[in-house]
Write a structure and sequence with these properties.
Chain lengths: 263, 263
DNA sequence: ACGATTTATGCAGGATACTGCCAAACTTAG
DNA sequence: CTAAGTTTGGCAGTATCCTGCATAAATCGT
């Protein structure tokens, strides 16, 4: 009532969007931000900063940690231990994906740790044909009583645990699938679907072409990022299953005609 | 701007996640880390470092050891298989088989639990091409640094964890291998090599035909038995590796011109 | 212009997380 | 075996976080 702008003088950041922008820049240059530090810097309470950070984190722009935030790093862990990362979200996504499969369908399933989890949530009553280039997935389905599993051969890429190459592609091209679950390394509304390996990109392209419906499974952390090799535009997906819930993140996909399921 | 690596501000690391990231990087570049060293480096107590290491270890990202930690490359997928059967004998057989492989060779390896063990005993220096219809074997080789792995596609037989069918056979027929390790379900000097599945029998036939040398791996308990589907006469084998040592059991094979290695 | 609805912010509290210290148990090396 | 170094689990202090609520600013509809 008294002073219109309590402390916000020239040079001080008073608006939320401005702070967000600035936090991102700072994160880019310093590699880390602390909640307490930001609070004194912008002359706002720590609660406000925390809200800012929470918001930025929920739209996937930063990685929130106790005490502040870090830039979202590309995971430097090419091991099996990726399975542990984001467990919670992957479970939700995988379960939603498993529920999409109907009796009698032919389903293409790509590699990746999220896709691997689909196996756990497939109803044991389900009768379908699963086609995959992921040996771990085939193994995970070995205990399922009614599924028929077709393993796609090819060169085995150790890091990703999938097969690739012309052999894999040829075989995929001779299939007509109802459904395809594509493992997403990264997805960006404008850039599209991208991966870190050229061979894998070709395989994914073939899978997209072979299937009526193409479903992308992607956790929040990978949205809005991109990698060197392009698979295709995001619009090649007919559906997106994700744990992201921020409308600003999801709407760009909806406007491209992609059905979005948020778990 | 170049020197913005974490090292530059090692004394100021305040966030847990930051330390974690840094520890992983350090582990990647130095090959090991010491708790006491990390403590002075980050200016936190050793207790905190130990907690960090414990946490990283429990999520599978590092291997905790007394005094510090090591990278965790050698750890493979948590196989939940029942390979306990005949452990002792299978280890000896698998080790002898692994020793047969030479640099530059193309090696066909069939499914089966004994064959799977070959992966563990393959020298990490060995440079060769492994062709297999066993997804578990391909996975077991994923941590090997120098091998090239070709996965044979086909219908996945859940009980045996191998691929079969015309697709598998066609692909095998287009290969010229130096060596072939055949998993033996049962072997009889007169009846020959037999298995419990027709499709598998065809695949094994193709493998025998595609390889210069054919090695049968068989534990004592399976010798002298037979199953419904014939792969071919015992004489199709050029070598037999077994834990049987009874001359009466082995001589019938020797007299067919088969080299016999008893472990 | 006015009140009503929405949005942003700050504050209080209870809950949670992180850290350092300590004692007991354990490991490693002589 | 002992001795030194290491690890673990419990404890307490502090910092950080979240929830709900109240206030202030901004937006909106009439």
């Amino acid at each position: 009532m008294d002073g219109m702008k309590p402390e916000a003088e020239a040079g001080q950041i008073a608006l939320k969007e401005e702070r967000h922008q600035y936090i991102l820049e700072l994160l880019g240059s310093e590699g880390r931000v602390l909640a307490a530090d930001l609070s004194t810097r912008y002359k706002v309470s720590e609660d406000t900063i925390r809200r800012d950070l929470r918001e930025l984190a929920s739209s996937g722009k930063i990685q929130r940690v106790h005490g502040g935030a870090l830039p979202r790093r590309a995971e430097a862990v090419p091991f099996v231990s990726r399975q542990q990362i984001d467990m919670e979200s992957k479970i939700g996504i995988a379960r939603a994906a498993a529920d999409m499969i109907r009796d009698g369908q032919v389903v293409l399933i790509d590699g990746g740790t999220t896709n691997l989890r689909i196996a756990s949530y497939l109803s044991r009553e389900r009768l379908a044909t699963i086609v995959t280039n992921s040996p771990p997935l085939a193994l995970a389905l070995a205990d399922h009583p009614r599924l028929s599993v077709l393993m796609l051969g090819g060169n085995f890429v150790k890091e990703e645990r999938v097969t690739t190459g012309i052999e894999t592609i040829r075989r995929v091209e001779s299939i007509r699938a109802d459904l395809c679950f594509l493992g997403m390394c990264s997805l960006h509304p404008e850039v599209g679907i991208t991966v870190g390996d050229q061979e894998e990109a070709y395989v994914k392209q073939a899978m997209i072409g072979a299937s009526t419906e193409v479903v992308g499974l992607i956790s929040l952390g990978k949205m809005g990022t991109s990698l060197p090799y392009l698979v295709g535009p995001a619009s090649r997906l007919t559906r997106l299953i994700t744990d992201a819930s921020d409308e600003d993140v999801l709407n760009p996909y909806r406007s491209q005609g992609i059905e979005v399921t948020s778990t």
